[in-house]
Amino acid sequence: MKKYIYMSLTMVLVSMFTLCMSACGDDDEKDMTKPVIASNADTDNPINCQVYHLGEVIPFRYTFTDNVELGNFNIEIHSNHDHHTHSTEAVECEEEEHEHEDATPINPWVFNQSYAIPTGLQRYSAAVEIPIPSDIDPGDYHFMIRVTDKAGWQEIKSVAIEIEEQE
Length: 167
Fold this sequence. Notes:
- The chain has about 170 residues and is of the alpha+beta class.
- Helix content is about 15%, strand content about 40%.
- The chain has one helix at about 1-30; strands spanning about 35-40, 50-55, 55-65, 70-80, 110-115, 125-130, 140-150, 155-165.
- It is elongated and about 90 Å long.
C-alpha cells in the first residue's frame, strides 16, 4: 500500500513539474507587442483631408505589420458633422464653410466592416474598394482603421475625409 501511495505521489509531482515547465515556457513566447499600421505617404489611402464625391469609390490601401502574426482589420466610416475628434492624427483639416455645415445629419453614412487577414502573416497589404452611397449627407467624416493581431493587441488610426456632392 505504501508503494502505491509513493508511486501516486511521485506521478502527481512529476505531472505538476511538467505542467509548470510548459506553462513557464509559454511566457517567453507570448506576443506583448501591438501591430503596426505602416505609414507610407506614397501608397496610403485615404489620408487626412482627402476629398471624395457622392457615388465615387474610396480605394483603401494600407500595410499592416506584426512581430508574431496578424489577425484581422476593420474599417469604420462615420459622420463628423459635430466635429468630434479621435486624436490619432496631429493634422487638422482646414474647415471651409459649407451649406450643410453644422446641420443635423438626415442621412449620415455609417460603414463598419471587418476583414480577415490570411493566417500566418506578419505583413499584409490591404486593398479594399469602398463605394460611397450617392444618397448620404455630404460633409465631414472620420475614416477609422483598426488592425488586431492574433494575440488581441490592436492599433487604431483615424483620418478625416470629406465627402462632397458631385460637381
